Amino acid sequence: xxxxxxxxxxxxxxxxxxxxxxxxxxxxxxxxxxxxxxxxxxxxxxxxxxxxxxxxxxxxxxxxxxxxxxxxxxxxxxxxxxxxxxxxxxxxxxxxxxxxxxxxxxxxxxxxxxxxxxxxxxxxxxxxxxxxxxxxxxxxxxxxxxxxxxxxxxxxxxxxxxxxxxxxxxxxxxxxxxxxxxxxxxxxxxxxxxxxxxxxxxxxxxxxxxxxxxxxxxxxxxxxxxxxxxxxxxxxxxxxxxxxxxxxxxxxxxxxxxxxxxxxxxxxxxxxxxxxxxxxxxxxxxxxxxxxxxxxxxxxx
Length: 301
Ligand code: 5GP
Known about the structure:
By secondary structure, the chain is of the alpha/beta class. The chain has helices at residues 8-33, 39-48, 59-65, 71-81, 94-107, 131-141, 171-179, 199-207, 218-227, 241-251, 256-270, 285-296, and strands spanning 120-124, 145-147, 150-152, 166-168, 183-189, 193-198, 211-215, 232-237, 278-281. It contains 12 helices and 9 strands.
């Protein structure tokens, strides 16, 4: 009888493809677990292309990558949604898609853009996502937008200029700024230095009808939301969790301990993205910057 097995070369190529596909699915699951993308976004990708890593992912695998879903819960959910455990997301029928979509929306609502945003724009996001680079790009290409200059107790880096990158102040001066109500928000970032947004220049620019951009950390973004509920909050996302880790490690300016701490902070920060009005993926700096500028052009009331 003739040998029915494919030739060795084919088998090697096929197994390589299988390994690559598994890796791609693992990376996507990390993205969902780390909240780089919403579960609904993964399902959208799966349905748009059933042969993609998202499309070929089994529903069981997908469900256990979601926060707080263990195996027991997974079985109950599958039974409730009437989806067989062997199903892949890209192969779900119309009724199953609707059931899965409704389940995800009820557990992890995707927050849409809110109406009535003001010209005060906050750009935040996890450590090493490239907020500073995107903000610098906006500053260079859109001089009509005021990029707020923060006060900080951190010492200046060799290339930094006082009054241009930051207002470098000592602890006593920072305390005074707080006491005199001169900061719109302030926070200790990475448990080390204090940073704050001076209120005066912002109020002046807003009065003059300009758009103001704050590139600050998450704690600051929350304070701005509380102080100015109409502020527009934009969350900058990495293209994937793996890419974020790469950027964090690749930067190489921190020691091991500091890097681990920043990674923990990044995880926490990613989990906060639903508090934001808009999400922008920083795949390409210029494109991300333009996307932020476009969002800001939304007419204010
Ligand atoms: P760096 O020291 O690398 O310039 O900035 C460290 C972090 O501080 C960045 O995540 C940046 O967004 C944040 N940051 C810069 N200015 C402010 C500010 O005025 N307020 C808050 N809350 N965070 C800031």
